[in-house]
Amino acid sequence: MIESLYTANDHFSIVPALMLALFGCAILLFDFLIFPDPRQRKWLLIFVVLAEGFTGFGLYRQTGYVLTSGPITGAFGGSVQVDQFSIFFNWLFLIAALIVALVSYRYLENAGEHHGEYYSLILFAQCGMYFLATGADLVTLFVGLELMALSFYVMVGFLRSEKRSNEAALKYLLLGAFSSGFLAYGFSVLYGIAGSTNLKTIVNVIAGKQAWDPVVYLALITTAVGLLFKVAAAPFHMWAPDAYEGAPTTVTAYLSVASKAASFAFLLRLFYGPLAPFAAMRSVWAPILAVIAVVTMTVGNLAAINQSNVKRLLAYSSISHAGYILLGVVAGNETGITGVEVYLMVYTFMNLGAFLVLVALRRQKIIGDEMDDISGLMKRSPGYAVLMLIFLISLAGIPPTAGFLGKYYIFWSLIEAHQYTLAVIATLYAAVAIYYYFRIVKSMFAAEIKEKEPMATSFGMRVALAVSGVMTLVIGVYPEPFLKLAQNSLLR
Amino acid sequence: MDQHLLSIVLLTPLAGLLVLLLLPGNKNLIRIWANLAALAGFAVSLPLVFRFQTGAPGFQFEERADWIPALGAHYHLGIDGISLLLVMLTTAMGVIAMLCSWSAVQDRVREYYAMFLLLQTGMIGVFISLDFFLFYIFWELVLVPMYFIIGVWGGPRKLYAAIKFFLYTLAGSVLMLLGILTLYFQHFQQTGAYSFEIADLMKTSSGMSFGVQEWVFWAFFIGFAIKVPMFPFHTWLPDAHVEAPTAGSVILAAVLLKMGTYGFLRFSLPLLPQASADQKIVQILAILSIIGIIYGALVCLMQKDWKKLVAYSSVSHLGFCTLGIFALNPNGIAGSVIQQVNHGISTGMLFMVIGVIYERRHTREISEYGGLGHVMPKFATIFAIAMLSSAGLPLLNGFVGEFTILQGAFEANRVWAAFAVTGVILGAAYLLWLYQRTILGQVSNGKNLTIPDMNFREVAMFVPLIAWAVWIGVYPKPFFDVLRQPVTEIVERVHPDYFKGSQLQPAIAKLGPKLGTEVAAQAGGPR
Question: CB–CB of B275/B212 below 8 Å?
Fold first, then answer.
C-alpha cells in the first residue's frame, strides 16, 4: 500500500515545487557551511539557477505530457491539478524569480544586507506560487498562499537597518494576515457548504444549490475580499504603496509581478472553478467588480500623478494595472480571460524591467528612488534611460511595445461584453497614465544631472535588463506565439 | 522589386536610424548621414510615382503577409492616389526638415536625427497601411518621437507643450481604438472571423445598425479630429507649434496633421458610409470646419507672435480640408487632398521662414521686425512666395486647392461656401498684414540692420518647395488625375447614386474645365 501513497503521477505533478523547496533548503545549509564570507555569497546564485533549471525542466516535461494526454487531475487525491493554465503561470513565476535573483546580489551588497536566506526565500515564495497556480483543493491553495505570503513578509523587511523597510514589513504582515483571515473564513464556509475541500466537489455541490443561497453569497464575498487584498485592488490597496516603497527594490519587483500574477491565477481558479455557477449571475456581481476595478484604476492613477518618489509612483501604477486586469475578469468572456493572462505576461517583463532600472540606481550610499535620482539619466547612462523609456512606454500601453497588447485585449473584451462605459473609462485612464509615466521620462531626458555616481551595474543586471527589454519589444512586434500560448492556457 | 517597394520605402528611414546609432560622435558626420538617409528615403519613394498606374482601381504596390493570425492582423501595405500624394509629401518634407535643422540643432544631434528618422517611418506607415491594426501601431508610433522633438529641442515651455500634445492625441487615439474594436467585433459577429483588413471591414457596414455606425463614427471622429485638429480640439496645436524646433513644426504642420484628414478619407468615409453621409453628422462637421476656418483666421489677426500666427493659420487651412471632405462630392474631396498637400508645402515654407529669422534674431515677436526687405532681399522674396501660396494667389498652389474645395462646398450647400469664402479673404488679410509688418517699410529696429541674408543651404531648401507650389498652381492636372479614381470610389461609397445622373465621366467633367487648366478629354464612366 505504501506505493499508492506517493505515485509517479503525484511526483510528476509536484516535481517543480519539490525542486524549489529542496534547493531553498540547500541554500540555507550551504550558506552556513561554505560561504561564511558575505562577498562569496553571490555564488549562491548558482543554486538558484540550478533550482530554476530543474523546475523549468519539470515544467517542460509537464507541458509535453499535458499537450498529449490532457491535464493531470488525480494527483494527491485530486488536490493538485497540472494543466496548461498552471504551466503558463509557473513559467511566469520562474522568469520573475530568476530575473529578480540575478539582480539581487549587487543590490544587497550595496545595501549591506547580503544574506543567503534571501535566495531561499525567493525560492520558497515561488514554491508557494506554484501551489496557487496548481492547487485544486482549498487547503493546498491556502497553504500555497501562506507560504508565498510568509516569504514575502520576511523579504519586504529584509533591510533590517532601514526604518522604511521594517515599517513596510509590519504593515504588510498585519494587513496580509487580516486578508488571509477573510480568505480562511470564506474557505471554511465553502467547506461547510460542501463538506469537502476539493474544488471539484465544491463545484458540484454549489451547482446544485439555488444561486441566491445566502451562505454561498457569504462565501463569495469573504473570499473575494481576501483575494482583492492580495491583488491590491481598491479599497483594499492601502498596504501596497507602503510595502512597495519600503521593501528592497528587488523584492518590490518580485512582489509587484509574481505575487500579483499568482493572486490572479488563484482568483481565476476559484472564480472559474467552485464559484463558476456565479457566471450565471454575472449581472449581480459584475457591476460590483466593475465598480471595484474603476475605483482601483482611479486610486492608482490619480495618486500616482503627484508622487515624487519613483518607486512609490510605480507602486500606484501597479495598483492601476490591477484595475485593468480586473476589467478582464469583469468582461468575463474568453477574450477577457485571455486578456488577463496576456496582461500578466507582458506586465511581468515591463514592470520587472522598470523596477530593475531602479535597482541599478541604488548605489553604495544612495537610495536612488527619488525623481531627482533619475534626472538626466540620458546624459549619464543612455542605455538605462532608453530601456526605462521602453518599459514606461510599454506600461503606458503604447505600441509597438508589449504593454499595448495587454490593454488591447482588455478593451477588446469590454467591447465584446458591450461594456462601453467601462471601455471609455479604461481608455481615458490610459491617457492619464501617460502623464505620470512621462514625468519620469521628462526627468530622465530633459532635466539636468543631479548626481554623477555611476549606476550599480553587474553581469546579472545586464542579462536581466536585456531579457526584459528584448521581450517587451518582441512581444510587442511579433506577439503571435505569445498570444497563442495565452489562448491555449485558458482554464477548461 | 515592385512587390516590396513599399516595404523598402517604409524601412529605409529605419535602416538609416540603425546606422546612425552606430556612427562615431562627430556632429557633422551625423548630420551628413541623417540628410543622406532622408534623401535615400525620398529617392526610394520616387519609383512609386513613375510606376503608379493612374486610374487603376483599388490599391497598388500591394504587399500582404500574415502578422498576428490570433488577432486577424496583417502586414498589409498598399497605396492609392491619395496615399501616393501624402507619402511623397512625407518623404520630400523629410529631406527638407533634415536640411533645415543643420545649424538650428547643436545639442544631442544624434538623438535628434534618430527621432526624426523614427518619425519618418511612423508617418509613412500611417499612409500605406491597409490593415487597421498596423495603421494603429504606426499612428501611435508617431507620438513618441514627436514628444521628444518638442520636449527636448523645443522652446521655453517645451515640456508643457510636449505633454499636452501627447495627452491630447493619445486620448483621441485610444477612443478611436474603441471604435476600431467595435467595428472589428461587428465584423466577427457577421462573419465569424476576426480581421483588421480594411477590405474586410468595408463589408461590415452594411450589416451594422445605424446607431452602432454612428457610435463608431464619433469614436473615429475624436481620434482624427484631434489630430487634424478641428475646432474645438485645436488647442494643443498652437502650443506644440510655438515650442517645437523649426523642423518639428515643419513636419508637424506638413505631415502629421494630414494623418487626421487622411484618417477621415481612408477609414471614416469608406468604412462607415451611412453615418458619414448622415445629414446631421455632415452638418455638424461642416459647421465645425467653418468655425475652424473663420475662428482660426480671426485669431491669426490678433497674434503678436509670428509662429503662433502661422500655427493658427493651420487651423484655418485644415478647416478647408475637412470641409472639402464632408462636402462628400468629387470636387470637395479631391480639393481637400490637394489642399492637404498645399498646406504641407506652404505652411512648411512659412515655418522654415520663421526658422531662418529666428536663428538670426532669437525672437518671434512681430513687433521686433519691420523693413526686413531692405536687409534681406532673398529672404523677403522667398517669404513673399510662401505667403502668397498660403494666401491662395492664382498660379500658386493654394488657389487650386481652395477653389476646388469651395466649388465642392458650393455644390453641397451654398451657405457653407458663402461662409468659407470669408476664410479666404481673412487669410489674405492676416498674411499680407504679417508681411507688411515684418518685411515692408523702413527698418524700425536697429538690431535688424546687421542680419545676414539667407545662405545657399537655406535657399536650397526652399527651391524644391517653391517649384512644387508653382507646379500645382500652374498645372495641377497630374494631381487631379491621380486622385480621380480613389475619390470616385469614396464618393460612390458614401453616395452610391451620385454618379447615376450623368452619363459622361462626371468627376473629370466637373473638375477639369472649371479650373481652366485642362479639358475633360477622356470618355467612359468611372470603373
Answer: no
